[in-house]
Amino acid sequence: MEDDRRLLANIVNSQIDLHGIYGGVVPELASRKHLEDIYPVVEQALRQAGLTLDQVDGLAITQGPGLIGSLLVGLSFAKALSLVKKIPYVGVDHMAGHLVSVFLGENKPAFPYIALIASGGHSSIFYVTDYLHYRLVGRTRDDAAGEAFDKVAKLLDLPYPGGPVISELSRNGDPAAISFPRSWLEPDSLDFSFSGIKTSVANYVKQNQQSSPGGAGKKRSARETADICASFQEAVVEVLATKTIKAARSFQVQNVVLAGGVAANPRLREVFRQQGDRQGFNVFMPPQQFCTDNAAMIALAGYHLFRQQAVTTLDMDVYSRSPLTEGA
Ligand code: KG4
Ligand code: ZN
Q: How far is 142 from 194, CA to CA, in rounded Å?
């Protein structure tokens, strides 16, 4: 049964160009653009899959967490399709999608495993026992890892989103150039905190501009920017990988999964593999294109919900914060 599943289309309709000039997502613009694009995107996906709506057995729709306006566009569209075409639909938690995204790759983990979801809104560690069963065992107490990348990029006048830009610039930087703090919290804690490192980068940038010859406003060289990026990235990567492996050890599982937008980061992928190899854990991660938000992971989580006969009724609503990651 599992092997019969194939991904027929996965259209990613990025709004980065639209929001980039504002340095971050503008919620009102996002939902308007969703409204404009959702119909053409669904048509494009059906065309690519070689299917008509009459051949579709179920719809999976992101219920949350995310921006309410954008989520509502998707949900209303799914409800309309469901009513008109009599296709059942399920609401999928965005985190549940990231958690199953690893199964879109070739290398699939056996349950149970520890999973880190590092994205723009979350840095959470889950103990996962099945496709749809997981327990939150660690989370960020302030900024998410991706949010830290995005905020640091802004401090350095780099474009949005910061993660891909910082990881690219880091390739030419020295990760040991600047010793930014690693926040480990209490000895047993599996939680994260990334607001301190963001403040350290802000202080470093400010002090360096003021104390260097030329004084305030001195232009940073490309080399200096690369060093800041690489040193910041190294600190975040080290904490993410170390805490996740620590969680695997404390839950006595062999398999560790890395997912979410930040999992597209090549250095994070490398350090995870190195730490896993050295400490005897098997490390799994989705191919890079399935790390950042995508429809395939929502469809896959939806598939597992349908297998449980979990069909959603028309009174379903969206939510901005996840019951999975708020520990509720
Ligand atoms: O999962 P995702 O696509 O959307 C959310 O659920 O937030 O994650 C987006 C986040 C952004 O903060 C982005 O900067 C970060 O993932 N990201 C990266 C990389 N690619 C995307 N962070 C570090 N390195 C990357 N290569
Ligand atoms: Zn995401």
A: 7
